[in-house]
Amino acid sequence: MTVRLLDPPLHEFLPDITELSVRVAVAEARGEKHENDLRLLQAVHKLHEQNPMLGLRGVRLGLVVPGLFTMQVRAIAQAAAERIRQGGNPRPEVMIPLVGTVQELEIIREESLRVLREVGQEYGVELDFPVGTMIELPRAALTAGQIAESAEFFSFGTNDLTQTVWGFSRDDVEASFFSAYLEKGVFGISPFETLDTGGVGRLINIAVEEGRAARPDIKLGICGEHGGDPASVHFFHSAGLDYVSCSPFRVPVARLEAGRAAVEE
After folding, report:
1. To pair with 136 at 20 to 30 A between CA atoms, which of 27, 99, 189, 243?
2. Number of domains the chain contains
3. Rounded to an integer, what distance in angstroms lies between the CA atom of residue 77 and that of residue 48?
4. Please, what sign has the CA dihedral across residues 196, 202, 207, 213?
5. Is 194 inside any structural domain?
6. Whose CA is closest to 78, among 65, 67, 92?
């Protein structure tokens, strides 16, 4: 089982700025002390981001907030160690999100391996789990050869990769101009429904080629709704990926199309 470390934008960790502002304003109007709320409000304003989805999130958050990722890896390691003690054979994989450069991955990987060693010694078991990354930025795909030197697997995050390649937010644009683009023939189909093979697909091909050149035994797959789209599944098979992952309700279609792609080959 692949466990993706938390990937929320920074604002999801912060107190609600409106509520804080109201508390400070009410305290000032009443002449009450409000130093703590005021300091907190100032800190929230300082960390405010105009575009949180392209801000302090993913691996960046793990590098900036001490202990955030090590806490998660420790929880994974302890759960696995308990299962081993009970006679089980857990096989978790630790996946680092939103990596754009190998240096980011190397730092978090070393921290993760240290935690696995510590927990293994504490429980008296051997914890040797693969550490890999999510390829969801164009730069990660273009430098996949370097990243593969420190990653035991890649999972292509095709939702974020599509957003960053096209430069638009799925949450915002689908309701605003996608219908017009479809009517005018700019899109034949939404790139969030069927993979854009000419753009996103080309980056995946580059990453597969360079990743396998650097690490021949690297495991490659995708995580996203494209994993349950028939046309996309056939592309992933031709690109040489090992697996697809998608929402539960799409799994039957994904399995059927993966089988068809293998037979057609």
Report:
1. 189
2. 1
3. 33
4. positive
5. yes
6. 92
Digit-coded pLDDT (tens) for 28-54: 666 666 666 666 556 555 555 556 667
124: region left, alpha or beta (phi > 0 left; psi from -120 to 50 alpha): left
8-state DSSP, 16: P
* Cα distances (angstroms) measured from residue 193 to each of 2, 122, 139: 24, 46, 23
pLDDT of residue 50: 59
**Residue 37: inside a domain, yes or no?**
no
- Inside any domain, residue 47: no
Pure H helices in 86-199: 102-123, 138-142, 144-148, 158-166, 170-173, 178-184
- Amino acid (one-letter) located at 216: P
Q: How far apart are CA 137 and CA 258, in angstroms?
A: 25
Task: Enumerate the β-bridge partners of residue 157.
Answer: 223
Is residue 79, in this structure, part of any structural domain at all?
yes
Q: What is the CATH number of the domain that holds 145?
A: 3.20.20.60
Helix axes 230-239, 251-264, angle to 10 degrees: 50
By the 10 Å C-beta count (0-12 exposed, 13-18 middle, 19+ buried), 51 is classed as exposed
